[in-house]
Design a protein that fits this description.
Number of domains: 1
Structural class: mainly beta
Order of helices and strands: EEEEEEEE
CATH class: Mainly Beta
CATH superfamily: Uncharacterised protein family Atu4866
Largest sheet: 8 strands, antiparallel, barrel
Number of helices: 0
Number of strands: 8
Helix content: under 10%
CATH topology: Lipocalin
Shape: globular
CATH architecture: Beta Barrel
């Protein structure tokens, strides 16, 4: 898989949700104190991202001006 500019950790402003996009096409999402609350695969096409978690649940999102809008959440890149 080719690396894309959105790899890395994305977090909500309050830090409650931490969403890591891994270079192998997998993601790992932590919520509060619960690490790896959700895991699965993702694909990026331009500025759009599609997710399929390990239970088969699907979701999507869009990157706009350096912000990830995903399932009603707003996530910012953690530097």
């Amino acid at each position: 898989m080719n690396a894309h500019p959105y790899l890395g950790m994305w977090v909500t402003a309050d830090g409650h949700i931490r969403h890591e996009l891994l270079p192998n096409g997998r993601y790992d999402e932590a919520r509060g104190r619960r690490s790896s609350a959700y895991q699965g695969n993702y694909t990026v096409n331009g500025d759009h991202i599609d997710y399929v978690d390990d239970t088969g649940f699907t979701a999507d999102g869009d990157f706009v001006d350096g912000v990830l809008y995903h399932a009603g959440m707003v996530l910012f890149r953690e530097l």
